[in-house]
Structure formats: C-alpha cells, structure tokens
Design brief:
single chain; 386 residues; alpha/beta; Rossmann fold; 11 strands; globular
Amino acid sequence: MKKLTILGSSGSIGQNALWVANRFPEEFKIFGLSVHSNTAILAEQIKRFRPQVVCVADQDVAASFAIDTRLLGVELLSGDSGLETLAAHPDADIVLNSVVGFAGLRSTLAAARAGKRIALANKESMVAGGELVNKTVREGNAEIIPVDSEHSAIFQCLKSGRKEDIKRLILTSSGGPFRHYPIESFPSITVEQALKHPTWNMGKKITIDSATLFNKGLEIIEAVYLFGLPADRIDVVIHPQSIVHSMVEYVDGSTIAQLSRPDMRLPIEYALFYPQRRNLEVGEIDYEKPFSLDFEPPDPAKFPSLRLARQALDMGGTAPAILNAANEVAVQAFLERRIAFPDIFGTVDYSLNKASISNVVSLDSIFSADKNGRELASQFARSRSV
C-alpha cells in the first residue's frame, strides 16, 4: 500500500485525487493533506480519510483550527515551512502537488530533495524554477510524473519512440470561450464570461489562464523543462473538442496522440499508478457514434500570451519567473474587476520588458524575480484600473 500526500486538497485537482485514491483503498492510504485556508473542507476530509498529518498554509487560520485538529486526532502543520515539512515527510511515498501558483515551488523542491514520486499539477513550479527543480530531482533521485492533461499526454506518447526521433511536441488547447470573439469585443469581456470554460471544470485561476491562453504559454515553458526539447520544437494547436490531449510528431511523419474524455481523474490516475493503469469507470470515448476532431492554429493577435511565453524563454534566466508572477497578479486583478481582460496581456508584457533579468543561481534568485514581477505587474495594473 502506498501512502499519499495531497497538497491543495480543497481544490478541484485535490478533490479529484481523493476520489481516485478512495476508489482503490487497498492500494492507497491518505497520509497528508494541505489547504491554504479552507478548513471547512479540510475538516470533512480529515473525518473521511483519516490522514496522519495536515497543513494549513495560512498561519492565522491554522491557529484557530488547531483545537479542531486536536479533537480530530491529527498532527497540524502551518505556514510555508509546514508545507515543506509535509511535502518531504519520510512516511509518504507519493506527493501530489496541486497547490495553485508560485506558492507550490517550495513544496515541489522539498519533495524532490526527499526523493519522492511527485505527481505534479503545479505547472508554476516548472515555469518559475524549472532548472532548479530538475537539478534537485536528479540529486534527490526523485521522479516527476506530470498531472496536467497535456503533459501527461506527451509523457504517454513519448513511450512510443526515441527522444532523438522526435520532430516536435504539439500541445492542444480548447481555445477557451473567446476563440470566436472579435478582438474588438475583448475590452468588454466580463469575469463571468471568462469563467465559463467550454469543456473543463477547473479552479478560477486556471480557467482565466485558459481564456487568455496563458495556460498554453506556461505549458510551453513547462514542456521545455519536463521533456528537454527547445521551445521552437513545441507547438500549440486549437482543438475545441478537448479529446486529443496532446501529440508527439516523429521524424518519419508519424504522429502519436493521446485521446480520452476531458476528465482530470484520468491523468491523476496515470500519475499515481504509473507504469500501471487502473479502470476508473469514468466513461470512454464512444467510437460507435460519429464525431469530429478539429484542429486550427491559435490567433496570435487575439492571444499574445504564446508570444510572451516564448519571449520569456528566449530571454532566459529568471524571465519565466517574471512572466509567471505578472500573470498571477494580472489574473487576480481581473477577477477583482480592477483591470479589463486585455490588460492581462498588457500587464505581463510590461513586466517582462521592464524587469531585471538574472541567471537562476539559487532559490533566492527565483524569489527575487517573483517579487520584482509582482511589483511591476501591480504598478501596471494600478495604472489601468477600471
């Protein structure tokens, strides 16, 4: 039996991971859970899954939750240090990191130093700290199995050929809700419209990233570090059905694709059980009925996010961390209705071009870049306040 720690257990990925683990109680024991501040959900999860250790990242909330955890009979950790302790705990075999945003980097590094299997749903770890994460994984003899549906698909497709025979990786995107919107209408896009994803049910931050296609930009950067290919061999195509989750094209003209219904429980299952698979009974593609698989290129005028991500990779060093930080600030400002939808692109563009870029020499250099990116993004967002 494997002991599983889920970081970010109150979010959509975390709750889906608990669903998968609960389906196979003879194979998984929930060892640890963490939330940022949603102790109501955490309390219910403690009662149901009986973890040994939990962490509440918000220390003020954790202090008021302490009496509950004593009554529930679990060890309570708090803050960033508590999250790192939980991620590296020697009694856990697998750490699923679904913490939202840059906050997940320390946990990924802690789990890597401890030699864990890391089921990685926190793409920002690789975007902001990919070089450092890869180095730490090698030194700690850890492994990363991606949970993002696109990178899970690439990971699976790569099993069919040699790395030296790869021509390119092709990441698919639904195109988000504004694929057919005229660019002139972008300033009037509302938060409610942006949160209506056509095929996936996700958290607010990633749903906005899907609407701007910044999720694809971040995924290009993540793919560079996960799979060791340059950005000019990683392409993005719009695939509105979200059935083909990504593809690998080989030098002989063959393309290997991974298809499934759009259900995050499938890549979670793959990461937890790899190299085996289990039947989740969540439904298969019905090949008895006619259906279409459509592909088209993204519109760079509508969605400059892909260009900005490639620019950050070309700039190198801490530029991807700057891009990630600025995007997080911009998304939050849009959700709080302080900036218009197109200002998300403007915020990131401004921050990337004004920031001081340096080499990634340590974790401190990444955190310094993150701070710089957030300050610049906040400055721009204030100037664009609606």
